[in-house]
Amino acid sequence: MNKIQAEIQSNVKRIVSGIPQGVRLVAVSKYNSNDRIQAAYSVGQRFFGESRAQELVPKAQSLPKDIAWHFIGHLQTNKVKNIVPYVSCIESVDSFRLLSEINKQAMKINKVIPCLLQFHIAVEETKFGFDIDECEQMLLSDDYKELKNVSIIGVMGMASITNDIDYIRKEFRQIKQIYTKIKANHFADDDKFSEISMGMTHDYQIAIEEGSTIVRVGSGIFGERMYDN
Ligand SMILES: *Cc1c(COP(=O)(O)O)cnc(C)c1O
């Protein structure tokens, strides 16, 4: 085993032992090789996150079948078909059009796909996500109620990229408030709707303090990503 693999293993162990029971660690393995994923897998990590369809599919085909793959990136409708056989959760649902396509492709292979609704909180212009009114309209619509092959299990969001901890905390509170509102208005009797995915390498501890149930940690496990290899 090389040095980076040993580091990955100690990072996973340290993070897992530092997060409370009931919070799940998704190891964000985008841009990282199968060897590195195997290193995390060998110390018990089973949830991995990928943000590109063309990367998730070959990894899922070649790595152990008991890995639960979370799709966390912006998803184009024409890529849904490719990933649906392999994902255990799509965290980045940001439109009815996308949800409807996931439903259609899942139906073809007799699956029900757990999904999270992604909300736009951070100030960055380019971030994808619902706004709350748009989302509630969808949840009330007859078109939504016809979807039988998707199961909405919670919300996902990202904080702004800033060193201002109070600001980050405020944004996580906003995500939690959105969760609470949607739960009360649309999923009060549905125990499956219970997840809040928020928190990454630099802010997952704050996210947990603010109610996160899923943290998505990449560079804190695998090191800084090399986007060009
Ligand atoms: C890349 C990515 C992460 C992980 O980011 P790190 O800062 O490396 O922990 C988490 N969530 C999403 C949606 C991402 O795209």
Description:
This protein is α/β, with parallel strands linked by helices and 229 residues long. The chain has helices spanning 3-18, 34-42, 53-62, 77-83, 96-108, 132-140, 142-145, 165-186, 204-209, 219-222; strands spanning 24-28, 47-50, 68-71, 87-93, 113-119, 150-157, 195-197, 214-217. Helix 4 links the parallel strand 3 (68-71) and strand 4 (87-93). Helix 1 (3-18) packs across helix 2. Pyridoxal-5'-phosphate binds at residues 28, 30, 51, 72-73, 200-201, 216-220.
What class would the helix/strand composition place it in? Answer: alpha/beta
SS strand fraction: 15-25%
How many helical elements? Answer: 10
Radius of gyration: 17 Å
Query: How many strands?
Result: 8
Mean pLDDT: 95
Order of H and E elements: HEHEHEHEHEHHEHEHEH
Rough shape? Answer: globular
Task: List the uncertain runs.
Answer: none
Helix content: 40-55%
